[in-house]
Amino acid sequence: MNNGSLFTVLPLPIPTNQPVHIHGLFSLSPDRARIHGSSDSSVQDQLPAQWNEWLFARPIPTAWVNMLLHVAQRDPERAAFAKWPLTVANYNDVMHGMIQKVLQIVQDRSCRIWYTDLGYTSSNLGLLANGDESLALRRALCDIGTPMIYLPDTLLPTVQSSNLVERLSPTSLCGRLERSGHQVRALIEDAKQTLLEYILSDPSFRGYGAMELFPFEDGTYKSIDRRVAFVHRDEDEHALFGRELHLNISLGRLSKNTIHALRNGLLRSSLHSSLRQRSSNDLKSYCLSTYFKNFDPSQDFVCLDGDMKAFVSKIWDWIVARGYSLPEVDVSCLWLVPLSNGQHRKLKPQNPSSGTIYAPPGEIGDFLRKMATIDAVSNKPIVFSDSLSSRALKLLVDASVNDSSLLVKNGGVLEDFTFWLNNIHQAIERASNDDKLHLQELLVSHCHLCRDIPTISSALRGLKIFQKLTWMPGNDLEPCFSWTSLNGYSEVIGLPGNVPVPDGTNVLFVDAKLEDTRRFLTEFQLAACPCTVSLLKDFIVSFWESGHFKGLSICCREHIARLFFSHFYNFERGTRERLASLPFLPLSPIDDKRVSKFATAAQLIDSSNHLLRSIF
């Protein structure tokens, strides 16, 4: 109870409202009701007042300190803060400033009168608690041997304002912990977590690198001064980088507050420089030192097992989650592109022949995927899109548009599609007739996407997707079909009907009976598809004149003769004059209906008839 009073031999009727009684030879008024003070205006002699002031300035504070020392020595297990001076706000009160005077003497004499959980200590050895420390923190501080001074609310503000005792803070605590490393290592896990949470509570403080309080996933607690320590952003990142346990902070062993402080601090760049979140450079280093460490860096293609394939998928998810574009990520040397043959290719291959193509959704993509299943193109696989998320796939395709060094063509672009068809010409050759005809239909239906007809036409000419027509000797009117490319011919003609043509010329005749085929040939500028009259006039007459039809069967030549007759009056005059001298008229013996040879018109008239001879 704070009912102390002043004494001079006997009690004085002067209460102090302090926790102790004070005895002194005070200068008193005659009635002992008050002591002389400097405010006594009616008193001529100031010596009594000065005497009293001296008592309260020196002897009384000294005696008070001595009393506190005695109490501490007599009962070292109990706090004596209830006996300390109380703050007095009234300037006229004789006890005003007593607490400050006592504190100064305590400081000057380094008195061990500050009670802590570890016993009494001096102001230069103890740390002043702020009053809001948790029970867990108090226990942890006790475990590491830090003398903490926990003051009552009546005393705390005055002591704090005096700055005579170092206050508890992350800075002051780390200073103490550096001198007691062995005690920190001996702490239980909960105590270490509590101390780390408190140290990280000050966003402006970074001087905790030497503290062995950081839990790593390899099961150890270490300092971070001379090592990098990674903080995972989320569980997906945690799973991705699970092979560097010695570098990963174990968030599972930290409180929610500590995790929050770490992640917020990293966002604000306010933490120790060793604490980081992984960047794309860290990703590359991690991959090359763990999953990919046994691969030859000069190889563009590698075979991955199931765990590695799942790891690559996680890499793509990590890149997408970070919002990176591929040019921002330094992972070009990693084998991240899944292929249809089960291999993985470097993001940026070294060999220009290591290109691939993305098969988009739709018919073109289906065709590419079907061709990729043919053994002949196992060395020309396409991107295996099933192994990538839609966002990862879009990231790869978008990047390939602006960065040709990725060597990833887009099957949705007709120029890229036809370029790739040339790359897999062996598969095209082995494709079924239906597949080749379907390819023509695909190209026609996507012709509107074409931006460069000459480039596409050049690519298509080398593919064996054109049906060459050949009429063999001894055959009737039915031609033989064979798939061929357009290379090596001076001219290509699409035959819309059954018009026999000879082989062995520099002109290639291909089947064009179907409307889709005719459109395919003409829209991509691969061949002309003339009408029958133009075909007869521009090619068949010349072939007959040059003797190319001698190798064809009688039936074929007879059929051509009938075409000449049926279209005779559709020809220009010059063509009709050429036909007059052409031996295309079929002849047969009188007793046989079969044609045996062909003659000119002049050979069939009476040579003595001058009128007929003038006509032919």
Structure description:
With 616 residues, this protein is of the alpha/beta class. Among the domains are: 280-431, no CATH class; 458-615, no CATH class. It is built from 23 helices and 22 strands. The strands form ten sheets. Strands 2-1-3 form a three-stranded mixed β-sheet, with no helix packed on it. 30% of the residues are buried.
How does the SSE layout of this entry go?
Elements: E1 5-8, E2 10-15, E3 22-23, H1 47-57, H2 59-74, H3 98-109, E4 114-116, E5 119-121, E6 127-128, H4 135-143, E7 148-149, H5 156-162, H6 170-178, H7 181-185, H8 189-199, E8 214-215, E9 221-222, E10 229-230, H9 235-240, H10 256-268, E11 275-276, H11 280-289, E12 301-303, H12 306-321, E13 335-338, E14 343-346, E15 356-358, H13 363-372, H14 390-402, E16 408-410, H15 414-423, H16 425-430, H17 433-445, H18 453-461, E17 466-470, E18 480-484, E19 491-495, E20 507-511, H19 515-523, H20 532-545, H21 554-566, H22 573-580, E21 585-587, E22 597-599, H23 610-615
Parallel strand pairs: 1-3, 6-7, 10-11, 15-16, 19-20
Antiparallel strand pairs: 1-2, 4-5, 8-9, 12-14, 13-14, 17-18, 21-22
Helix pairs in contact: 2-3, 4-8, 15-18, 17-19
By DSSP (H or I, 4+ residues per run), the number of helices equals 23
- Structural class by SSE content: alpha/beta
Q: What is the mean predicted local confidence, pLDDT?
A: 89
Biggest pleated-sheet summary? 3 strands, mixed
Shape: rod-shaped
* Beta-strand percentage range: 5-15%
The helix content is: 25-40%
**Low-confidence sequence ranges:** none
Number of strands: 22
User: Rounded to an integer, what's the Rg over CA atoms?
Assistant: 52 Å
Strand arrangement, major sheet: 2-1-3
**How far apart are the first and last residues' alpha carbons, in Å?**
151 Å
